[in-house]
Design a protein that fits this description.
Distance between the termini: 63 Å
Helix content: 25-40%
Number of helices: 17
Number of strands: 18
Largest sheet: 9 strands, mixed
Structural class: alpha/beta
Shape: globular
Strand content: 15-25%
Length: 471
């Protein structure tokens, strides 16, 4: 006897053979998948407390978002047409600094509703705040919202332990002077030992909570903003607690040094390795890519936001050729505009074809891997997530195929990347529990009033001085 059988749908397993079973079934018991196969075989082998007819639906692994910033959802769309650092220091930081714990809780709940509704069951939150993460009450409220929603999340607590070089500091001040009416804010660097101790305390407190759905990682804020000792300490914590660590790396040309690249700096600190996930890696050389491959360092590719900020296009084709594991991320919603990984899959597939001047680059199958099994590898969970296989966790998404824009389709990968929008998601399981049914988030109650969220956002804009932005 098992808890649940999903039967009759088109099952895209994303297993090693990338099997697609046209009349397939998935048996789930507790948090785990116990069988995947043809409907007749699975139904013949197992009785279930509940059987769900998934005929006319695509059944696939839950999507994994490898790089996000949750609070940005409350100022969605603000700061467009600004470069990375202009937006970061004149828009993002002032807004986030104005947020209190209740604002963060509202943002977390709104984010979960949107991202689960789009089929994402796991996300890695780069919780940098203004550099040193968030206060204890904000963290508690955020993680409580994720727990209630039933999503699987990684909370990567950020820290800075050294100031930037004088030239970069002068550059930031030049940008800030463009917006004298904004309430500028920043976190001072922490002592290295204190920063690492704060991360370790959060790991001890929250890692493995929410029935194992919540993880905590060290998240050095930015490659050049953390000392070698801080980076090495973050990696040592990852080893000690069997987790991973992540930082922003080579997002823009401004962040790269003439004498050493971000990747070279991280290597010199002992930070590269199989427990490291680097966000962006847009401005990397072939030499950098070889270093990533040699150390089995992973990359989170944030194509939509990188396009919006015009920072460049990460050389994913070269990373693929070198054997670097790349997972897809949506990054911040202020510039991406949505938490919808399916939408970003299409962007990734199209942009890399143009960037490489090759229509054969980044085929649909590859993009789906970047949002499922390779994303699972990128966050260190290929053994439990990213595909529908017996023994893996039951993070499962169902898409209704009864839409004109999905008919006809050639293959499942092309359907997902080029035809689907994310709005077709009907049901989502995470850890074996139904978290989205009939489009509604089961763990969060009634949807919040859109007017109240709009008013909250506008109030934060006023409190932070962003209503004074010079256009």
């Amino acid at each position: 006897m098992v808890d649940l059988i999903l039967r009759g749908g088109t099952v895209a397993t994303m297993d090693e053979q990338r099997r697609v079973i046209e009349d397939g079934a998935v048996a789930v018991d507790g948090p785990e998948i116990v069988a995947v196969g043809e409907t007749d075989a699975v139904v013949g082998d197992y009785d279930a407390d509940r059987v769900v007819d998934t005929s006319g639906q695509l059944v696939m692994p839950g999507l994994i978002n490898t790089h996000v910033h949750v609070p940005d959802i409350l100022y969605r769309g603000r700061g467009k047409a600004r470069g990375l650092h202009d937006w970061l220091f004149n828009v993002k930081h002032p807004f986030v600094a104005a947020m209190d714990a209740e604002d963060h809780a509202v943002a977390a709940e709104l984010y979960c509703r949107e991202t689960l509704r789009a089929g994402v069951t796991t996300f890695v939150e780069n919780a940098g705040g203004l550099g040193n993460g968030y206060d204890a009450e904000t963290i508690r409220r955020k993680l409580s919202a994720y727990d209630d929603a039933g999503v699987r999340n990684v909370y990567a607590h950020g820290f800075l332990d050294q100031g930037g070089e004088a030239a970069f500091g002068s550059y930031i001040e030049t940008l800030r002077r463009k917006e004298p009416g904004v309430d500028h804010a920043s976190d001072p660097p922490m002592e290295t030992d204190a920063a690492l101790a704060a991360v370790e305390e959060l790991i001890e407190q929250y890692h493995g909570t929410a029935e194992g759905r919540q993880s905590v990682w060290p998240g050095p804020f930015l490659a050049w903003g953390v000392s070698r000792e801080g980076l090495a300490g973050a990696y040592a914590l990852a080893e000690k607690y069997d987790v991973m660590t992540t930082t922003h790396t080579a997002e823009s040309s401004v962040q790269e040094r003439h004498l050493a690249s971000s990747v070279e700096y991280l290597e010199s600190a002992g930070y590269l390795g199989d427990r490291t996930l680097l966000g962006h890696c847009v401005q990397v050389s072939q030499s950098d890519i070889r270093r990533l491959a040699a150390t089995d360092t992973k990359v989170a590719h944030n194509i939509a936001t990188n396009c919006s900020l015009a920072t460049g296009v990460a050389p994913v084709s070269a990373m693929d050729a070198a054997g670097v594991t790349v997972g897809l991320g949506t990054d911040n919603i202020a510039h991406n505009d949505t938490a919808n990984l399916i939408a970003d899959m299409r962007v990734a597939a199209l942009v890399h074809k143009v960037d490489d001047r090759d229509p054969g680059r980044l085929p649909a199958e590859r993009v789906v891997e970047m949002a499922t099994i390779d994303a699972a590898r990128a966050i260190g969970h290929a053994d439990s997530l990213g595909s529908l296989e017996a023994g893996k966790l039951a993070d499962i998404v169902m898409l209704d195929l009864d839409y004109p824009h999905l008919t006809p389709y050639t293959d499942v990968a092309s359907l997902l990347v080029y035809q689907a929008t994310g709005s077709e998601v009907s049901t989502v399981l995470c850890n074996g529990d139904v978290v989205i049914e009939n489009g509604e988030c089961q763990g969060l109650g009634d949807r919040p009033d859109p007017v109240s969220i709009q008013e909250r956002s506008e109030s934060l804009v006023e409190r932070s001085g962003l209503n004074q932005l010079v256009r």
